């Protein structure tokens, strides 16, 4: 527990990027990374939802589930909290940015079952983080996810104008790109270990 | 044991309940857009409650933009010009709009949400569109699967429409169908009679509205419809007119020809009606009569599958090869088509090949 919240925050972005080291949240990562614009929107939404739900779930876990001795219900409770919060985010996005709302389409509600978000809540419990550490971890992971999807979207936009082997167009090339990005991020490992 | 279970259930429902309550409160604040002003054609101003689509908001104000799908964004009929306040063009609208329409701020009114003051332009004709209540006074079998419906208007008592336009008939929930649906049908009666309309409705297997008309609707029942809609009407020129329609597509053509006959219109006209067998022909005497009344009209019924025992001595095969009997100066000919999208597509292709300009081919295509 000697790790400071700031170190966890930085580590969650780079050394243990939730997407590129744990490979969580791949489905929307691959499908909404065609354009930088909409992936920035989705990335921000994930960052926001992840930060807030980590804090909410922390509170729910330590102030409701632990005292009442029902920690075995954590999955269902976490999912309910995440779902309610995503619903709220959806209302806000629809109100203030209809274009983003329609370009995200089905993927905004799908954040509900984005495994990266549930994953962060579960890791925070397993690793016995304090509240500050948990929020830092949530925010860092969200930013890391945003960074990863932005990078992939940028790369995919560049590749779109280039000739690539026909069999690799689309998902194939995206997966290879993701793999190489993950390799690059391995370069950060060893600086600090949080897991 | 039981206490543990009850406790757990209580806690989970408690948490869920609190979250649901929060969402309800949030919905109240975020989905509440207050009062918005809609300015129509720069002169009419109406104040409405924001939050719903432009199409349904206008409907509530008794302004009926055409819509065949009921606001699902799949028919593309509800276009209107939104000058300001419509928000950005949405990906759900793009497939229905041409580049020119996008430049002119044309939008699908079912996708535009009223969230602020909004300025729109709609054709003056739209103001003629109303909701009508009518009584069924006759249901006549025209063929084995086509019925003619006569609707006497109750409220309002008269209708003004152009021959060729259509109405949207509302089928209420019946039997296993729980939702009311509305479907478009062309008016087959002459616009000179403004106190009733007639519709020709062919039974579609498993069709919600047509099954209702064919099996549940009775004389003296009351029905609702909105209208009149559509850009399918006679252009006032002196060009030759070729009409092509099969099945229940005869409705708007009959209305047009009766209206022309009343005025003794001297234009050259030919109507090609395609059917499979003799039993699908109808209104034959009526069209024989029209041939006598109109100085330059000819009726061309064509059967594609006359049975062997059939004593049909008319034209056999598809209608298209017979067009050459009528078309003399393609550049000086207007075409009026009504039928399924497939039939329209192939007829348009054929007429274009014969030299009829695309902008002189008019049609209603009912999916």
Any overview of this molecule?
The complex is a heterodimer of chains A (195) and B (367). Chain A is mainly alpha-helical and 195 residues long. Chain A has one domain (5-186). Chain A has helices at 5-13, 26-31, 36-65, 74-96, 98-104, 107-110, 115-126, 131-160, 171-186. The relative contact order of chain A is 0.23. Chain B is α/β, with parallel strands linked by helices and 367 residues long. Chain B has three domains: 35-126, Beta-grasp domain (Ubiquitin-like (UB roll), Roll), CATH 3.10.20; 129-229, Translation factors (Elongation Factor Tu (Ef-tu), domain 3, Beta Barrel); 240-365, Nucleotide-binding domain of ferredoxin-NADP reductase (FNR) module (Rossmann fold, 3-Layer(aba) Sandwich). Chain B is 23% helix and 29% strand. In chain B, strands 9-8-11-6-7-10 form a six-stranded antiparallel β-sheet. In chain B, strands 15-14-13-12-16-17 form a six-stranded parallel β-sheet, with helices on both faces. Chain B has a five-stranded mixed β-sheet with strand order 2-1-5-3-4. In chain B, helix 5 (250-262) links the parallel strand 12 and strand 13 (269-275). In chain B, 34% of the residues are buried. At the A-B interface, helix 4 and helix 5 of A face helix 1 of B.
What's the β-strand tally of chain A? 0
Spans of chain A of at least 5 consecutive residues whose pLDDT stays below 50 are none
Chains forming the largest contact: A-B, 21 and 21 residues
State the separation between the terminal residues of chain B, measured CA to CA: 61 Å
What's the number of helices of chain B?
7
Topology:
The complex is a heterodimer of chains A (about 200) and B (about 375).
Chain A: H1 5-13, H2 26-31, H3 36-65, H4 74-96, H5 98-104, H6 107-110, H7 115-126, H8 131-160, H9 171-186
Helix pairs in contact in A: 1-8, 3-4, 3-7, 3-8, 4-5, 4-7, 7-8, 8-9
Chain B: H1 2-30, E1 35-40, E2 44-49, H2 54-60, E3 79-84, H3 99-103, E4 106-108, E5 118-121, E6 130-141, E7 146-155, E8 166-171, E9 181-186, E10 196-202, H4 208-216, E11 222-229, E12 240-245, H5 250-262, E13 269-275, H6 284-293, E14 297-303, E15 315-316, E16 333-339, H7 341-353, E17 361-365
Parallel strand pairs in B: 1-5, 12-13, 12-16, 13-14, 14-15, 16-17
Antiparallel strand pairs in B: 1-2, 3-4, 3-5, 6-7, 6-11, 7-10, 8-9, 8-11
